[in-house]
């Protein structure tokens, strides 16, 4: 469905470009002819002005006859603007595209409501500067080291935490964040826990997909490649995963849902929701019930 919509959108854009090129080409031709006619009329005007000062009456009559002769039917440019210029094909394609997009989003929102997931954070993965609360549904980055026991799945250097539950089907969840910077991500379980830099940072490798949220902007990261999302920031994010279809969608949630970014790929393992949380920031898993 998405590929079909993209193809239709490309066809509409190509049709508009072709129409635009044709109109621009015709307008340029008309402009060139108008400039030629203006130059010709100015030449006649100058010759008539010069002729008005001659005292040779015979020359005056002969020249005036040719200069004052009206232009022939093909000499002056005739511009016809049709009030019925038809963009019916463009309108029809745009209308079909709009209807199909609306159908897709309506269907997806219904799926979102039906596939709501109840997730919890896994204390065994939490970095020692991350404090979990409210039944492991809230994570806050603090300066105080938390007294977590040693565990092989704990993030050692990156202030990150994963959820307990892996997702390999359809799932929708929402998270509310506050503070300076947080990352709302999904990751394969095999993401590095002890490494430094890109190997463990969510969105910085090919094992994770991440939406970075700041008070002024969003950024999508995957495999250490950044995509800026130029829309106003909101404090609530919805995430919809269709594992089998290979789609991952991030939404800004307020009175309405606004699609921020969609990924189309092939997921080879179950995915785990995770958060990267900057000092003083926090994220809460929302109750969808």
From TrEMBL:
Q: Which GO terms describe its molecular function?
A: zinc ion binding
**Keyword presence, Ubl conjugation:** no
Cellular component, GO annotation:
cytoplasm
Question: What keywords are annotated for this sequence in UniProt?
Answer: Coiled coil, Metal-binding, Zinc, Zinc-finger
The keyword Kinase is annotated on this UniProt entry: no
Q: Where is the B30.2/SPRY domain?
A: 99-289
Alphabetical list of SUPFAM superfamilies matching this protein: Concanavalin A-like lectins/glucanases
Kindly list the residue ranges recorded as spanning the membrane: none
This one is known as B30.2/SPRY domain-containing protein
Protein's organism: Conger conger (Conger eel)
């Amino acid at each position: 469905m998405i590929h079909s919509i993209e193809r239709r959108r490309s066809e509409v854009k190509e049709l508009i470009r072709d129409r635009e090129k044709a109109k621009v080409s015709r307008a340029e031709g008309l402009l060139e002819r108008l400039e030629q006619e203006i130059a010709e009329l100015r030449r006649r005007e100058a010759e008539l002005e010069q002729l008005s000062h001659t005292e040779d009456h015979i020359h005056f009559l002969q020249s005036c006859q040719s200069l004052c002769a009206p232009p022939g039917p093909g000499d002056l440019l005739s511009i016809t603007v049709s009030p019925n210029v038809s963009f019916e094909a463009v309108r029809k394609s745009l209308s079909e595209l709009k209807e199909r997009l609306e159908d897709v989003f309506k269907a997806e929102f219904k799926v979102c409501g039906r596939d709501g997931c109840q997730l919890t954070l896994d204390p065994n993965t939490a970095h020692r500067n991350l404090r979990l609360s409210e039944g492991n549904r809230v994570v806050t980055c603090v300066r105080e080291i938390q007294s977590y026991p040693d565990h092989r799945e704990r993030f050692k250097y990156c202030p990150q935490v994963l959820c307990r539950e892996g997702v390999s089907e359809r799932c929708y969840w929402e998270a509310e964040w506050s503070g300076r910077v947080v990352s709302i991500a999904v990751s394969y379980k095999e993401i590095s826990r002890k490494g430094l830099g890109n190997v463990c940072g969510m969105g910085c490798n090919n094992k994770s997909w991440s939406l970075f949220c700041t008070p002024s902007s969003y950024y999508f990261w995957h495999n250490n490649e950044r995509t800026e999302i130029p829309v106003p920031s909101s404090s609530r994010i919805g995430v919809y995963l269709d594992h089998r279809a290979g789609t991952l969608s991030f939404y800004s949630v307020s009175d309405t849902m606004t699609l921020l970014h969609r990924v189309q790929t092939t997921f080879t393992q179950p995915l785990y929701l995770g958060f990267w949380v900057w000092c003083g920031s926090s994220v809460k898993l929302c109750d969808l019930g």
